[in-house]
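Kindly inspect this chain:
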Amino acid sequence: MTTESAFSPLTIGRTHLRNRLVMSAMTRSRATGDGRATADIAEYYRQRTGAGLLVTETTQISTRARSYPTTPGIHSTEQAASWERVAEVVHDAGSAVYLQLFHGGRVGDDSMRGGLAAHAPSAVAAPGKSFTPAGLVDHPVPTAMTDAEIRATIREFAGAARLAVGAGFDGVQLHGANGYLPHQFLGRSSNLRTDDWGGSAANRVRFTVETIRAMADAVGPDRVSLRISPAADVLGVDEEGTEELYGEMLSAVDGVGLAFLDVVEAVGQRELTQRLRKSWSGVLALNPHRDAEPAPPHEVVPDALDSGADLVVLGKPWLANPDLDRRIASGGPYNEPDHTTFYGGTAAGFLDYPALAG
C-alpha cells in the first residue's frame, strides 16, 4: 500500500474516523496533583488532531491504581469534569478520542497511592526501580488481591468507563499491556495463584476478559477497546506460552463486539502479530515495531497496513510532530523527540514542537 491508503476513512464501533492514523497513549505526567487534566493537556491533544483517533495518556481508575507522579485520574466527578475540555477540543477539530483506563498493580511506590499498599495477582515485587519525586526507589512487594478485591477492581474499571463517556469521550481503552495489572495476571512470574484467576491460560486471561465485559456492559461494547502487548517482557512479566495465552484471550473477547483491538508489537514479532490476527475478526490497530531500527513513519504506516492492520498507532512520532499526518503525506521531515522532557515539567517539550512551514 501507499501512504494515501492511511487517509481513507473507517468506522470503529459507533465512531467515524476520517483517517487510519492513531495517536498512541503516552504518559506525560503533567496533570494536577489530584489527577485533573489541565488546559495545557487539552492544548496538547488539540495540536495533534491530524490523527483520526487520539488515545489519551494512561488514566488511573482509582487512587490505588496510580503508579507515577502527576498522572491523571478518572475516578471522581472533578477529574471527569476536567476531561470535558479535552474531548470538546478534539471533536471541534474533527477527530475522535478514547480515554485509556489504567491500573498499575504492583508498579510504583506506595507514596504514589497516598500510602495505600500495592495490589497485584501475587505478592511478587516488580524488578527494577520506580520513579518518585524523591528519586528512584525499589518497587514494593504488593499484597495479593483477594477474590473480592479483584471483583471490586473490575467494577472500578466499569465505573471509570461510565465517567469517561459521560465526559464526552467516544470510548475507552483497557490498558492490558506493558507490565501493568491486567498484564501481571497473564505472567507466570507475576501470577502464582492457584485459584480461578491463575494457573491455566484460561484463568490467567480471565481478569482481562471479565474487565472488558464489565466495561462493555457499562458503556456499550462499541465504545470499548483493548490494548495488548504480546511477547513483551516488560516490568518482569514473563507470559510463557504467548501464542496460546493470547489465542485464549482473543477467542473469549472476539464476540463481544469491541470497537477495536490495539496491539503493541514486540520487535521481530510480525509473524506472531499476523497469526494472532487470524483469531481476531474485528478492527485491528497496530503499533508496529517490526525492526529494532524503525523506518520513518511514511514507510512504517503502509507496511503496517499491508500486514493486515486497519489502523496504525504511533507514539513518539506524534509526541514530537503535532502535524504528523502532514509529514507522513509529504514523506517527512520529522522532528526528533526530546527524551528529557517526556515526563513532567512545563510546556517545553510538550506544546512547543514546531509544525511544518505553511
Observations:
- The chain has eleven helices and 15 strands.
- The domain at 3-315 is CATH 3.20.20.70 (TIM Barrel).
